[in-house]
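Hi all, posting the design record for the shared folder.

TITLE: backbone redesign
STEP: 1 of 1
STRUCTURE INPUT:
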């Protein structure tokens, strides 16, 4: 009963503080509850640790080198570590070359929750100039897709919405993981290898 009353108050924006997105009201009641549950979670039970910093830093260095194989291996080690720490099923990642694009923009990454097993795809080069994506940008894309995986396998959500809570969780992974004092990574003069997906 208490949950029902709280849900009604949230629906009336008494506990929200900001208006809900328009599409929220087109969701089924079950999906609305999932959305609100996602929004209420702002971090993971994961602490900053030198090992996490090292793995994130190794991913950044692999991105600078521009090798699909190196990026995939470093990204997989990072995801495996986070999943192991949170005691959830790991997720395979794939790294491909040039980002797909259309009039709406470029696709940075995607998570396939219904595949068996689920997997993540990242694209490492920009659509127009085919430049290697900046290290922190690609690392954030990976954390974004991993956050979708964790919605399903850690929080047991029925869907993974882009709520404010979701973006806070993504930012939390970057905040505790990205090395703060590492010298800036540069791509000057680096074309990377020519391996393509």
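Okay, here is what came back for every position:
SEQUENCE:
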């Amino acid at each position: 009963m208490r949950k029902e009353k709280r849900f009604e108050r949230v629906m009336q924006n008494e506990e929200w503080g900001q208006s809900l997105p328009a599409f929220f009201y087109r969701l089924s009641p079950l999906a609305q509850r999932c959305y609100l549950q996602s929004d209420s979670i702002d971090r993971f039970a994961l602490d900053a640790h030198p090992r996490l910093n090292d793995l994130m830093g190794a991913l950044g260095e692999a991105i600078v080198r521009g090798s699909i194989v190196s990026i995939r291996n470093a990204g997989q080690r990072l995801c495996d570590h986070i999943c192991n720490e949170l005691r959830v099923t790991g997720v395979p990642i794939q790294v491909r070359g040039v980002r797909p694009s259309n009039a709406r923009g470029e696709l940075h990454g995607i998570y396939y929750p219904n595949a068996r097993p689920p997997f993540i795809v990242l694209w490492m080069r920009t659509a127009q100039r085919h430049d290697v994506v900046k290290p922190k940008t690609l690392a954030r894309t990976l954390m974004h897709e991993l956050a979708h995986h964790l919605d399903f396998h850690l929080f047991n959500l029925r869907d993974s919405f882009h709520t404010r809570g979701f973006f806070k969780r993504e930012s939390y992974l970057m905040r505790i993981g990205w090395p703060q004092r590492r010298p800036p990574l540069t791509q000057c003069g680096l074309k990377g290898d020519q391996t393509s997906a």
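COMMENT: The beta strands are 93-98, 101-102, 105-106, 109-112, 119-125.
Let me know if anyone wants the other runs.
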